[in-house]
Design brief:
The complex is a heterodimer.
Chain A (H helix, E strand, L loop, with lengths): L1 E5 L2 E3 L5 E2 L5 E2 L5 E3 L1 H17 L2 E8 L6 H8 L5 E6 L8 H15 L4 E4 L11 H9 L3 E10 L3 E7 L4 E7 L2 E5 L11 H7 L4 E4 L37 H12 L1
Parallel strand pairs in A: 1-6, 1-8, 6-7, 7-13, 8-12, 9-12
Antiparallel strand pairs in A: 2-5, 3-4, 9-10, 10-11
Helix pairs in contact in A: 2-5, 3-4
Chain B lengths: L6 H17 L2 H10 L4 H9 L18 H15 L8 H11 L2 H14 L4 E4 L15 E4 L4 E12 L6 E8 L9 E7 L5 E5 L10 E12 L3 E2 L5 H7 L1 H29 L1 E2 L2 E2 L4 H29 L5 H26 L10 H10 L7 H17 L4
Parallel strand pairs in B: 1-4, 2-4
Antiparallel strand pairs in B: 2-3, 3-7, 4-5, 5-8, 6-7, 9-10
Helix pairs in contact in B: 1-4, 4-8, 5-6, 8-9, 8-10, 8-11, 9-10, 10-11, 10-12
């Protein structure tokens, strides 16, 4: 079996600066792996360890994602190979464009049986790419997966729903997005870190992925919230009428 | 001049921080200080993550490394935890064993190390009458004709004695007199007949158990000899310079933790209507602490880099060990002063950091011994033609 895990590389939110006009300046932020994709990587690595499958991480984004430390970070986590499209023409893609770019790379990787996505991206968290990727590939898809077991040409997955645990078997190829609690990301061992730099990396340009559809979503503005001073209103529930005042204050704030 | 670290070193430090966040809580640290040991499963997790394999030969699962990487790991481990994580040195101890031990001894040691992640031997070197002055040791090795040896003597300040399954014993061959330079080392089981131990209670670094060990006519087979007969002390000296770099990194990490704690406290504590850090006397302290810590870091990593280049660090490793061990206590003391009275309680960790820093003035060679080494090297460096 060949497993592909979709990974988003984005600016480290700890390094993003809010400017005086409330814009977000990520120009000095280091690239990092999107948090939820670390769970997806771990799920792929554990499944591969169980089945002997080969694993490839697939990344598409602006030129800034081509960061040697980030690539080694991905490859130190039980992943065999990396395919990366790093091109400023791929900056600010919406979910559909991202799904198309990733689908092109999955198809070029040849022989992929199972695609694993994270729960959502750590910046936008739209939770759209997995289903749109499945649509682009023409494969079945399930989200919220908490366990994966490989069968003969199938995978059986568990999903925890509100009142029940669902077990579903899908034919391969398929696309899954995994819940964050499917697996705790490993602490990569020193040997894995040292070996990561020697693993195969295939680089793509935007032109290698075919023409992407126009953006379906237009971003008008991204701004930080208006800073507001804390009101520090205290209500003493032991005093008559204070609870009513508390409820009224809540309603006023909402 | 390049202060950049490699991708691999950055990733290693990221993972070390994650390891500390997952495995080492302040509550656990306090328990370990009371118990005089770190729980073996945490030592094992540290080893399995690869940090405990740095410097060990690859045939034993080791990871080729350098002194800069080792110093980075030790500094960050101390900074993250604000505590003396005793497992920082276990890999280096195994490195010593791998250098001098027979293949059977190394295999035996590695099996014990890999089973629990804890140091597999304690080093029984110092004696009640011979600390820095090792040549005054009186422990003896008597060589019998029947293929056995008899070990006698009292060893003190033996770290890890209660937790390590083996003891690395060093004694004078036959004659305990001061002028006898022939010493031999043995790797013997802790439970050998005639071995007894009693705990010593330190005021700091209590996370590492510390004992006096009595060897009363301990009969061992001669194949427990470690390395060459009569050359025990020379063997022991061989890796002292790397050990000094590691201990200096320990001092630096604790000083950095103290500085960060003090700065954060000064930013929050209000006095006389304004944050503590807005008072000039506190600003001066923080400024001097930062200057000192930066000096410590520069000296440490320059020395580690020289070591990695194959340059002699006889002088610089002694300067480094002395400067960093004395300065970490000063930085921790200033940090405690910034905390005020609460810093002198167990309500915050600054007191523990100060106690641990103070111990660095003795561990791995006293500051005075470092002067003894460095002073002569300074004259050789600048006035060799006059000697």
């Amino acid at each position: 079996m060949n497993i592909a895990v979709m990974v988003k590389v984005l600016p480290d939110d700890q390094d993003i600066v809010v400017t005086a006009d409330r814009k977000l300046d990520a120009s000095k932020a280091k690239p990092v792996v999107s948090t939820y994709d670390l769970n997806a990587i771990e799920a792929a690595a554990l499944l591969a360890a169980d089945t002997g499958a080969a694993t490839t991480a697939i990344v598409a984004g602006p030129a800034s994602v081509d960061d040697s430390k980030t690539k080694k970070n991905i490859l130190s986590r039980g992943i065999d190979a990396l395919a990366m499209a790093a091109d400023d023409a791929l900056a600010d893609m919406d979910a559909r464009q991202t799904a198309q770019a990733l689908a092109a790379m999955v198809n070029q990787a040849d022989g992929i049986d199972l695609v694993i996505c994270g729960d959502g991206s750590a910046d936008l968290y739209a939770q759209q790419v997995d289903v749109q990727l499945a649509e682009a590939l023409g494969w079945p898809s399930l989200n919220g997966v908490t366990a994966i077991t490989a069968g003969d040409g199938t995978v059986t997955v568990e999903r925890v729903l509100e009142n029940e645990r669902e077990t579903v078997t899908l034919p391969l190829p398929a696309v899954l997005s995994v819940s964050p609690d499917i697996a705790v990301p490993r602490i990569a061992g020193m040997k894995d870190i040292l070996a990561a730099g020697k693993k195969p990396v295939t680089m793509y340009a935007a032109g290698d992925l075919g023409e992407l559809a126009p953006a379906a979503v237009e971003v008008i503005d991204v701004s930080a919230p208006e800073p507001a001073a804390r009101k520090k209103e205290l209500f003493d529930a032991a005093q008559d009428g204070e609870l009513d005042a508390f409820v009224a204050a809540l309603k006023g704030a909402l | 001049m390049d202060f950049k670290i490699t991708d691999e070193q950055e990733l290693m430090l990221d993972n070390l921080r994650e390891f500390c966040a997952r495995e080492i809580t302040e509550e656990r640290i306090q328990k370990w200080y009371k118990d005089r040991r770190v729980e073996p499963e945490v030592c094992k997790a540290y080893l399995d993550a690869g940090f405990g394999y740095l410097f060990l030969p690859e045939e034993y699962g080791g990871i080729p490394s350098d002194a800069v990487t080792l110093a980075l790991v030790v500094e960050e481990l101390m900074r993250c935890t604000g505590a003396t994580m005793s497992f920082m040195s276990y890999g280096l101890a195994m490195f010593d064993l791998a250098e001098f031990g027979s293949p059977e001894q190394v295999k035996m040691g590695m099996e014990a190390y890999q089973k629990t992640g804890e140091q597999c031997f304690s080093l029984a070197l110092s004696e009640p009458g011979a600390g820095s002055d090792n040549m005054s040791m009186t422990a003896t090795v008597h060589w019998n004709d029947d293929g056995t040896c008899v070990l006698n003597g009292t060893k003190t300040m033996v770290s890890h004695a209660e937790t390590a399954p083996f003891i690395m014993f060093i004694g004078k061959d036959e004659d305990p007199s001061h002028d006898n330079k022939s010493m031999s080392m043995f790797l013997i089981p802790k439970d050998a007949e005639g071995v007894k131990m009693a705990p010593l209670h330190k005021i700091g670094q209590t996370i590492t158990n510390f004992d006096e060990i009595y060897f009363d006519n301990v009969v061992v087979p001669q194949d427990m000899l470690l390395g060459k007969k009569g050359e025990g002390f020379k063997q022991l000296m061989k890796n002292f310079e790397l050990e000094r770099i590691m201990l200096a990194a320990h001092s630096l990490g604790l000083a950095q933790a103290a500085l960060e704690d003090a700065a954060r406290y000064a930013a929050q504590r209000m006095t006389f209507g304004k944050p503590l850090y807005m008072h000039q006397l506190i600003q001066e302290k923080l400024t001097d602490m930062e200057t000192t810590v930066q000096n410590m870091r520069n000296l440490l990593y320059k020395t580690a880099w020289e070591f990695d280049q194959g340059m002699s660090v006889r002088l610089d490793s002694a300067l480094c060990k002395r400067y960093l061990s004395s300065m970490c206590t000063k930085v921790a003391s200033d940090a405690m002063q910034i905390f005020g009275g609460i810093g002198y309680t167990t309500e915050c960790r600054i007191g523990r950091i100060w106690e641990d820093c103070r111990g660095d003035s003795f561990a791995g060679g006293t500051e005075e011994i470092m002067v003894h080494i460095a002073g002569r090297q300074v004259v050789k460096k600048y006035a060799a033609d006059l000697l």
